[in-house]
UniProtKB/TrEMBL annotation:
Residues spanning the membrane: none
Record domain YqaJ viral recombinase: where: 48-169
Source organism of the structure: Aurantimicrobium photophilum
Protein name: YqaJ-like viral recombinase domain protein
InterPro entries reported for this sequence: PDDEXK-like_dom_sf, Restrct_endonuc-II-like, YqaJ_viral_recombinase
Lineage, highest ranks first: Bacteria, Bacillati, Actinomycetota, Actinomycetes, Micrococcales
Length: 221
């Protein structure tokens, strides 16, 4: 996948992007700096959900394909979701630990349910599916299941990946997906692709996320 294919288009001026702060971690040891920014380890789901509600998560950012998406995303964030899951999400939850074990065995990336905040902004949050360090480089994993084959990584998932890389300070992400037919995996092993960090895409997302924070503030004050 080329950087051009992975880049997110944003309706904004070059000046706005140029004014964004540096998004790469500044710590002396960036591959472990994320540990000090854990909000919750995810073992208490209620606490995890409360913490997520107080910031902008990868799920929120996935909806932000342009500045025009901010008002709708803000209303959805405030109102919450009535969606409690279906057979597809249940299947995904059941398969994720199995796929995560495969990722750990083959790529030394540990499963994770912890929530972290970014170095620059405590309201910028992310929960990657896996975290690993290889040769002092922080890498992540993101796991999906799908009834349909992927023709490349869907744009919303790319936004999630880039956001997680930004929040934790990671350099690359192993994007893993398992296709199923009638909830039976079509292959013995899932498919995967490495997604490299893209600073321009990250700056675009930070700009949009801050716009979402501003809209939430406007609606609640």
């Amino acid at each position: 996948m080329s950087a051009g294919q992975a880049r997110i288009e944003l309706v904004s001026s070059a000046a706005n992007v140029a004014q964004m702060p540096e998004t790469k971690p500044q710590a002396a040891e960036p591959h472990i700096a994320y540990l000090s920014r854990m909000v919750t380890d995810g073992s208490d789901e209620a606490a995890w959900l409360r913490a997520r509600s107080r910031g902008i998560t990868a799920t929120d950012v996935a909806k932000l394909n342009s500045v025009n998406a901010i008002p709708t995303a803000a209303l959805e964030k405030l109102r919450g979701s009535s969606f409690t899951g279906n057979v597809y999400t249940d299947h995904g939850k059941a398969r994720e630990p199995v796929i995560a074990a495969w990722v750990k065995e083959n790529f030394s990336i540990e499963p994770s349910s912890a929530l972290f905040h970014s170095e620059a902004e405590s309201r910028h949050l992310a929960t990657p599916d896996g975290i690993g360090v290889v040769e002092e480089t922080l890498i992540l994993a993101e796991i999906k299941t799908s009834q349909k084959p992927f023709e490349g990584v869907p744009a919303g998932y790319l936004r999630q990946v880039y956001w997680q890389q930004y929040v934790l300070g990671a350099e690359r992400t192993l994007f893993v997906w398992e296709q199923h037919e009638n909830f039976v995996p079509v292959s013995d092993t899932p498919k995967h692709i490495w997604i490299e960090r893209d600073e321009r895409a990250i700056r675009d997302l930070v700009y949009l996320a801050n716009g979402l924070i501003g809209e939430l503030h406007r609606l609640t004050n």
